[in-house]
UniProtKB/TrEMBL annotation:
It comes from the Bacteria. Residues 19-79 form the HTH tetR-type domain. Residues 42-61 bind DNA. It comes from Streptomyces coryli. Residues 1-20 are annotated as: Disordered. The keyword DNA-binding applies. One of its GO terms (molecular function) is DNA binding. Keywords: DNA-binding. This is TetR/AcrR family transcriptional regulator. The keyword DNA-binding applies. The lineage of its organism: Bacteria, Bacillati, Actinomycetota, Actinomycetes, Kitasatosporales.
Length: 205
């Protein structure tokens, strides 16, 4: 990911037409990222995926790392949107644990490995890739807070959402790494999480 903006290149001015084109390019690059992962990512690979040239991408994005950061954020936003849609299918008034469990099939979808690769890069080389992870928590928390009972305080929602996010991240990492009976371990973990969430709901009544 060494492609950088040569001197003389300028950013898209943000006109409606330019912004629409930028979104179109970003969607295509995000599709490629979801399918092929981070390994070997470059402006030229992104340009092939978007059906354009790397010079066009440099007009709209500030180099390969900026494009990668935005594509990772877009991929994460897609995942959150699908997760919230899955949770919304659980009838209102059902236990919070059931709504959280509905997220799991989405979290283990095709984006999971790519987003973990991004987090790994951010930890391995924070000087270059910290932006791939920065903001991840703030992207996830609003959706998780929205699953909590409406009559909870914002502080309580934030605390419980933070617990849910940290727990699901642990489950997902365990599942991705494999090991002894990862599915059984995750199932047992969900049972424990459900009991914790049930206690939170009971305490708030």
């Amino acid at each position: 990911m060494t492609d950088a903006r040569p001197a003389g290149y300028r950013r898209s001015t943000g006109s409606p037409r330019g912004e629409a084109r930028r979104r179109e390019l970003l969607e295509a690059v995000t599709d490629d990222l979801a399918a092929n992962g981070l390994a070997g990512f470059s402006l030229r690979r992104a340009a092939r995926a978007a059906g354009t040239t790397h010079k066009v991408l440099l007009y709209h994005f500030d180099g390969a790392e900026d494009l990668l950061r935005q594509a990772v954020q877009q991929l994460r936003a897609r995942r959150i949107g699908k997760g919230m849609a899955a949770a919304a299918e659980v009838s209102a008034g059902r236990p919070l644990a059931e709504r959280v469990r509905a997220l799991w099939p989405v979290l283990t979808g095709t984006e999971a490995m790519v987003l973990h690769q991004a987090m790994g890069l951010a930890m391995y080389d924070p000087d270059r890739y910290a932006e791939l992870a920065r903001g991840a928590t703030t992207q996830y928390l609003p959706g998780l807070m929205s699953l909590c009972p409406e009559d909870w305080t914002e502080r309580r929602k934030a605390e419980v959402a933070g617990m849910i996010l940290a727990t699901l991240r642990g489950f997902l990492l365990h599942s991705l790494l494999g090991g002894d009976a990862p599915d059984s371990s995750v199932d047992a973990g969900f049972d424990a999480l459900a009991r914790a969430l049930d206690r939170e709901e009971a305490a708030a009544e």
